[in-house]
Amino acid sequence: MPSRLALFDLDNTLLAGDSDHGWGEFMVQQGLVDAADYGAKNDVFYADYLAGSLDMVAYAEFALAQLTQYSAQELNDIHKQFMQTTVIPMIAPKTQALLQKHREAGDVLVIITATNDFITGPIAAHLEIPHLIATPTECIDGRYTGKLSGSPCFKAGKIDKLKAWMSQQGYTIEGACFYSDSHNDLPLLELVDEPIAVDPDAQLEARALVKGWPVLSLR
Question: Which residue among 22, 66, 172, 218 is the one 20 to 30 A from 81 at the CA level?
């Protein structure tokens, strides 16, 4: 019997916070960007995300613009510090136990996230989740261009990215479960056999109640 997919949103699901927004705050705290201008724009984008009105391409390119001035090694060093100060403390208390439950069941663990692959790659590695589907960043000759290399992995775009990944990897959606906190993920939650709402926002909580979906907290 083929292994089933266990799909996980990242921000505010496995993490008790948002790594994309956290990256912006980290950049401000480290003095790597102009605090007033960058911080204010970062907060506006995050508010748009929570409201379901985010222009994902604009936000991704806003976040990626700062990467162009650094070498790959510099970014690696910066990200290591980001992991220690921001991400690791953000991991929800019950996340590791949930992941281990799925490993023991023989499931294939996949993070599927709107946050870009620069930010989320090391997070997936730290959580020992072998597969990552994220918003793709463009990197040429070892340097980030500040642009995306494809469409965002956001809202219904998560379905497109997942289908392409499954085709490449030889998996199907049959029996899959998906954990998410956000109404932005309703398209994929509606698609899978086992949708699970995790510390859900108000809109997702209401839909889960109507649909009879499980609701759990990892915090």
Answer: 218
State pTM to two decimals: 0.95
Active-site annotation holds for 9: yes
34 is known as an active-site residue:
no
User: Which 3-state string (H, E, C) describes the chain?
Assistant: CCCCEEEECHHHHHECCCHHHHHHHHHHHCCCCCHHHHHHHHHHHHHHHHHCCCCHHHHHHHHHHHHHHCCHHHHHHHHHHHHHHHHHHHECCCHHHHHHHHHHCCCEEEEEEEEEHHHHHHHHHHCCCCEEEEECEEEECCEEEEEECCCCCCCCHHHHHHHHHHHHHCCCCCCCEEEECCHHHHHHHHHCCEEEEECCCHHHHHHHHHHCCCEECCC
The pLDDT profile of the chain, 219 residues, written as one tens digit per residue, is 679 999 999 999 999 999 999 999 999 999 998 888 888 898 999 999 888 899 989 998 998 999 999 999 999 999 999 999 999 999 999 999 999 999 999 999 999 999 999 999 999 999 999 999 999 999 999 899 999 999 999 999 999 999 999 999 999 999 999 999 999 999 999 999 999 999 999 999 999 999 999 999 999
